[in-house]
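Q: What structure does this chain adopt?
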Amino acid sequence: MAARKIFAGAKLRALRSQHRLTQGELAARLDISTSYANQLESNQRPLTAAVMLALADAFGLDLSTLSTDASDRLLSDMREVVADPVFGDAVPDLQELKTLSVNAPNAARALLRLYETYRKTSERLAGVDAVLTRDPSSGIKTAWEEVRDFFHYADNYIDPLDRAAEGLAQEIGEFGPDRLSRLIAYCAETHDLRVSLTVPERADMIRSFDRATRTLAVNVRLEPSTQFFQIASHLAQMEQTTLIGSIVESAGFSGEEARQTARIGLSNYYAGALQMPYGAFLKAAEAARYDIEELGHAFGASLEQVAHRLSTMQRPRERGVPFFFARVDAAGTITKRHSATPLQFARFGGACPLWNVHRAFEARGEMIRQLAETPDGNRYLCLAWAAEKRVGGYRGPVRRYAYALGCEVSHAGQLVYADDLDLNRASFDPIGISCRICERRNCLQRAVPPLAATIAVPADRRAIVPYEIV
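A:
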């Protein structure tokens, strides 16, 4: 596959604005003509290797940040939106959507918000959305969706919080059998916080904090990795209040509910970074060739925690393999989704039924591998497994999930899971984002026709799929 051309007009304009430079002054720093700088900023020409090196020298930029852009996410999201029949014949083509996502990302996000407003309103009027029971003035998106998109467009990496957790991890010390007790001791010595591992009155209670006695009660029936994570998440709310508050404020959430949700999400992010500090974790991941079970043993973490952490390894100048990660419940709903790859998950509707994550429930305890290709021609190594989260005895709460972790085939050679696979084979399993926007014409698992397609229903013949895409 040919190397992708890098257009970074929006980033160049932002860089110039940050340093308060005119276009001519930027051109002088890069030793190029003003007209060439104008063409780069307007995305009429891609960045060359020479210009990227000049940017690195003049501004200390990490070159990898120039090749990773939210425009891929915006493009994927907009393609899904304009597939809705409400747009009729006035549907922008792929090139127009690319131009919008690269040259005018704020306009693209405005389009997404406008569509989500329309969609939520339509669902309320039809009486099919649970949001009906909520206050309609709560905002365009639900708080959950706002926070999900915040992490989505940040590549699921929050640098200042990650580094703060790494600093505390060095103070607590490397992972070992007594690391949980060391964290508990740190809480007592530094914050006069008493941690009590106890059986809660409610079987579904994970942790609770008594402000009067400064006691954090953590469910003793949880796995030690989960106990560590929960204590660390609460600790983040005590130690990193100012930092988390500044991140939340700069995100510009629409209401207090979204801000509260974001604080919890950021506290959980800090907990994962404390449990698996960036530098040590990346070094171990590369040494273990991204074997998630080995990494779980090395850091006392569950497979879900390890996979989630792998999806955050996007620190400038210290990037790991870019992964996507998703958690799917038994109904096929994606309850967590993060992607540092071109693969994006459906914002509306279910996931592709050909994706191996759906088979994981049938093979609990096994690691399922799949070589898959999306309609855009990108190829991936996909891993999937299922797990059961049980708290308490026979009648205790049980949650069942399937998990997906994967990377582009170009990175697969760094993974132990690819050792006996033919990564150069001609045929890969065809998967998509969701049926409603998938362009494939001959998929036997198609659930619904593509929204933007015209279909024909022949009267004289019947195939597995009862209609044909015209």
